[in-house]
Amino acid sequence: MEHHLVVTAVGRDRPNIVNQLTRHVSDCGCNIVDSRLALYGAEFTLIMLLSGNWNAITRIETSLPLKSQELELVTVVKRTTEHEQPNYSARAHFKIKINDSAGIIRQFTQFISDHGLALVSLRSQLNHQILELEMIAYISDEQTIPPQKMREQFETLCHKLCTESAELQIYPQ
Q1: Residue 79, Cα to own-chain centre: how many angstroms?
Q2: Which chain regions cross the lipid bilayer (predicted)?
């Protein structure tokens, strides 16, 4: 039976650090199913979904605290199950450029929440006080608001917040 583990690692970015961590994962007999790496200031963040048999997952869980200390990393691990994606009828892709201010991202995540969408990806980057925000959300089969109405409400929000540019694309699944 295959088991799954989510591992998050944060530490000072330096050459070979990711290689040392992924080598340890491999040495424990785990497979990296999915991963994301990002640099924030002088720190790197790595999130991985690992799979393996019970022994391999237990090995990484018990050995990672010592390895993390050796590599000067802060790590968090959590067992999980394989993701079962519910049926969604469409995918909404939001792209926004706006002058940055406190609470801007919350305004857009609130819009997604209010419309019952499942947020699956959020990426933001600040360039010279201009926030570039990109989000992907799934629209369930039970969604009652027609896509055109959602676009109109999104445009109203963007106008209210004085976005520099905003785009909402809806793609069928």
Answers
A1: 17
A2: none
Inter-residue long-range contacts of 36-45, CB under 8 Å, 24+ positions, other chains counted: 39/13, 42/12, 42/13, 43/10, 43/11, 43/12, 43/13, 44/10, 44/11, 44/12, 44/13, 44/17, 44/18, 45/8, 45/9, 45/10
Alpha carbon distance 120, 139 (integer Å): 11
CA atoms of 77 and 61, how far apart (whole Å):
7
Give Cβ neighbours of residue 143 (< 8 Å, ≥ 6 apart): 89, 90, 115, 116, 117
Number of domains in the chain: 2
pTM over cut 0.90:
no
Residue 39 sits in the same domain as residue 108: no
Per-residue model confidence as pLDDT tens digits over 43-62: 999 999 999 999 999 999 99
Reply yes or no on whether the pLDDT at 78 is more than 90: yes
List, for residues 83-131, the tens digit of each pLDDT value: 777 778 889 999 999 999 999 999 999 999 999 899 999 999 999 999 9
Minimum mean pLDDT range among 54-68, 122-136, 142-156: 142-156
Show which of 57, 80, 103 is a domain's final residue: 80
Residue ranges making up the domain that contains 144: 88-172
